[in-house]
Q: What sequence folds into this?
């Protein structure tokens, strides 16, 4: 042995340290991957020198021929002769005997740290070299406890294991644990072909769970890895699958009190550091760990509807979707701020809209009020007509009653005539009642209620109201209504108010027209686009072109006694109906006011019926 | 009651476009013993066969086409100007004033008390009877005046103005004897005894007023 190199370990602080990691099985087994990472991290973090890692894997299970092991020993010896490692770390899954063989090829005073995960006996005789390590046991009692914590209803545990020596050692331990349990059946599927296990696992009853031990060899002595078995069984089994190593979590297993390979790797790394620092390893006894870390796969818990509240308090939960806040808090913060700003804006807009609505409601109320006042003032104009309309039937009633009195005083009263009189009296009473009803609706202070409106009926009613006035003013009234007319959308009283207003205006406009020429025409028609068009035409003097533009403005009047509100209110009423009103006038020929109302069911007139130049 | 103790002479013509009122008033007046004829319009009224019979018209003031006042105008110009009583549903001051101004003699609302209505009808019938009498007398007088020669009418016009015979002779440039002869002829043809009677008759006939008034 060239002592120089070994001696250099202490002194040469600047030389990088060579650490050889040897895996007895495949290096890429889940447990090995986790451990290697932990070891590398621990060594890199703790070492004063730069660490150079070398890795070898023996893959002993898949190449069980002892010749291979010897070849590997020779290979190592040859390969590392010129650059002997300063530390060997040995990751063992099985018997220590193979370790002896392997190390024989490397320098005898090279410190060696092993990590073994199995339930085999601690070897009596350790290699004759600086040698120590960690022997990690599977936490079988912990896992069994874990199972019953999660699924207390379990009555049967199917244990799946392999046939290697390490597998057998673990099974033995499980059997020992099982013996202490009452009321639970343990079943061992160790000598069954994998495909049979697979099929059986898919049909297990609900009170059963599967616990997977280690499988290094199948019944047919084929090498296999536990991870392969779990990956195959866990997703397909009809019951939850529990495991003993954390490398197996993620492949569909629920969990268990597992070997924590991260912790294990870290502990091994710390041991390695001590070896590199030239602490005499010989004095360090092999560390035996039997603890397990309760660990569960969140997704599997969800899949089997296992209440996560049953997990032990220190349980590590894997694959739980991290709260999004955890991952994206800046984005969330930004979003929250954004949303808040948006909410404030929306709230402000809502408040504004509310105010606007209130203002609009107020305007509508005022308009309704104004329309009412205007209607009542228009009633003044109608008052003499009203008197006439009422005196007509009342006078007839009076004369009829007087006549009846005379008849009844005769010796042989003409009862037939008296009966006819009474019939007439009743009819005239109704007539007077109708007049009052018609007028009263105009007096009522009521809200605008839009609905289907029969314009024919309305026009006839309105003409009846205007007729006495027209008679007195010697104006002939003409009504043009087509035989078929669909209903409009409108409020009866308000539309009638507009009609009356236009009719009175038309009659006013003809005051200076010779009586023979005083003709007022009210025409109803369904427009080409389905709106209802009402026009009121007079044969008056017409409107001066300059006045036509302002005629709908409030307080604009060409009459000496006009207030100038009638047309302004009419326009407001029609526009509230979603309609349009306009005027066409021809000097010395007359004026026509036209308004459009939407058909019943629409809230706005359909476009297209407006004059080209309203 | 009124109906029984006075059977009136003359027909009451009712003209109203309101069918119901027309019927009711006809009933009442018929029951009270009047001869009644009812018409729905002025046109219908004028189209009736018109025998020379005493009577009066009760017309609605407001009617389409020909209203009450127009009816009165037309009637006044006819050969048989019957008195008109106006009825109105209105009864307010402006329409009353306007109707009165237009020559309505009697003016009642349709709901006027029965007695007012009957008084008005009675008055109108009396007026018609009186006017009729006057018209008969006038016709009779005008027949008599028609017998006078042109010169006699000329002399008469001076006589009724109170001119003396000499003055008349000078005015007409004829001699006094001729004037006296004319006067004798006039008193004979007109069958009057005195100048006072002659003057009254001329007044009554409106003989010299009619042309001047037109």
A:
């Amino acid at each position: 042995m060239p002592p120089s190199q070994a001696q250099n370990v202490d002194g040469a602080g600047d030389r990088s340290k060579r650490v050889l990691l040897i895996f007895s099985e495949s290096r890429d087994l889940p447990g090995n991957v986790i451990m290697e990472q932990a070891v590398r991290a621990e060594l890199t973090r703790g070492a004063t020198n730069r660490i150079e890692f070398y890795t070898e894997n023996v893959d002993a299970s898949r190449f069980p021929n002892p010749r291979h092991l010897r070849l590997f020993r020779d290979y190592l010896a040859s390969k590392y002769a010129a650059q002997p490692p300063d530390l060997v770390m040995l990751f063992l899954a099985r018997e220590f005997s193979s370790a002896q063989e392997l190390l024989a090829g490397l320098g005898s005073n090279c410190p060696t740290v092993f990590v073994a995960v199995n339930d085999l006996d601690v070897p009596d005789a350790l290699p004759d070299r600086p040698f120590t390590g960690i022997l990690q046991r599977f936490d079988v009692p912990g896992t069994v406890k874990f199972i019953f914590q999660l699924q207390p209803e379990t009555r049967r545990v199917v244990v799946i294991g392999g046939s290697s020596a390490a597998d057998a050692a673990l099974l033995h331990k499980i059997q020992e644990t099982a013996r202490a349990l009452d009321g639970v059946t343990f079943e061992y599927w160790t000598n069954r072909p994998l495909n049979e296990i697979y099929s059986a696992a898919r049909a297990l009853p609900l009170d059963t769970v599967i616990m997977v031990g280690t499988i290094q060899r199948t019944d047919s002595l084929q090498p296999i890895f536990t991870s392969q078995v779990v990956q195959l069984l866990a997703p397909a089994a009809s019951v939850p699958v529990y495991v003993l190593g954390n490398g197996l979590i993620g492949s569909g297993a629920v969990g268990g009190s597992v070997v924590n390979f991260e912790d294990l790797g870290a502990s091994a790394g710390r041991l390695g550091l001590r070896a590199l620092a030239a602490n005499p390893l010989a004095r360090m006894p092999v560390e035996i760990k039997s603890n397990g870390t309760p660990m569960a796969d969140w997704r599997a818990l969800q899949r089997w509807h296992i209440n996560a509240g049953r997990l032990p308090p220190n349980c590590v939960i894997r694959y739980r979707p991290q709260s999004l806040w955890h991952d994206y808090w800046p984005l969330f913060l930004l979003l929250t701020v954004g949303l808040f700003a948006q909410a404030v804006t929306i709230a402000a807009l809502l408040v504004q809209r509310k105010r606007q609505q209130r203002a609009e409601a107020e305007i509508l109320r005022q308009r309704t009020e104004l329309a009412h006042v205007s209607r009542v003032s228009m009633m003044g104009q109608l008052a003499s007509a009203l008197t006439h309309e009422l005196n007509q039937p009342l006078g007839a009633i009076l004369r009829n009653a007087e006549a009846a009195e005379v008849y009844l005083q005769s010796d042989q009263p003409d009862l037939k005539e008296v009966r006819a009189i009474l019939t007439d009296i009743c009819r005239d009473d109704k007539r007077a009642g109708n007049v009052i009803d018609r007028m009263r609706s105009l007096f009522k202070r009521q809200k605008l209620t839009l609905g289907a409106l029969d314009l024919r009926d309305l026009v006839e009613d309105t003409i009846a109201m205007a007729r006495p006035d027209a008679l007195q003013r010697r104006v002939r009234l003409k009504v043009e209504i087509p035989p078929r007319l669909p209903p409009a959308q409108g409020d009866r009283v308000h539309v009638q108010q507009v009609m009356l207003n236009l009719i009175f205006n038309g009659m006013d406009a003809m005051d200076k027209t010779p009586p023979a020429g005083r003709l007022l025409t009210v025409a109803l028609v369904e427009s080409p686009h389905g709106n209802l068009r009402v026009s009121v035409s007079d044969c008056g003097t017409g409107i001066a072109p300059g006045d036509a533009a302002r005629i709908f403005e409030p307080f604009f009047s060409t009459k000496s006694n006009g207030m100038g509100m009638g047309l302004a209110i009419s326009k407001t009423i029609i526009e509230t109906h979603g309609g349009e009103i306009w005027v066409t006038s021809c000097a010395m020929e007359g004026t026509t006011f036209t308004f459009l109302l939407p058909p019943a069911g629409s809230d706005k007139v359909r476009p297209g019926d407006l004059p080209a130049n309203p | 009651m009124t109906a029984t103790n006075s059977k009136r002479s003359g027909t009451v013509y009712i003209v109203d476009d309101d069918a119901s009122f027309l019927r009711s008033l006809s009933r009442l007046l018929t029951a009270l013993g009047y001869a009644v004829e009812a018409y729905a319009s002025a046109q219908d009224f004028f189209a009736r066969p018109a025998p020379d019979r005493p009577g009066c018209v009760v017309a609605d003031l407001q009617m389409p086409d020909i209203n009450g006042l127009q009816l009165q105008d037309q009637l006044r110009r006819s050969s048989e100007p019957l008195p008109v009583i106006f009825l109105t549903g209105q009864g307010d001051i402006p329409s009353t004033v306007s109707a009165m101004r237009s020559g309505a003699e009697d003016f009642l609302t349709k709901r006027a008390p029965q007695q007012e209505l009957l008084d008005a009808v009675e008055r109108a019938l009396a007026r018609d009877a009186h006017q009729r009498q006057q018209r008969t007398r006038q016709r009779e007088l005008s027949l008599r005046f028609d017998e006078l020669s042109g010169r006699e009418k000329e002399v008469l016009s001076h006589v009724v103005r109170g001119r003396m015979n000499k003055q008349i002779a000078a005015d007409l440039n004829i001699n006094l004897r001729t004037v006296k002869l004319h006067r004798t002829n006039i008193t004979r043809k007109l069958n009057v005894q005195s100048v006072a009677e002659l003057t009254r008759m001329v007044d009554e006939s409106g003989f010299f007023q009619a042309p001047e008034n037109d």
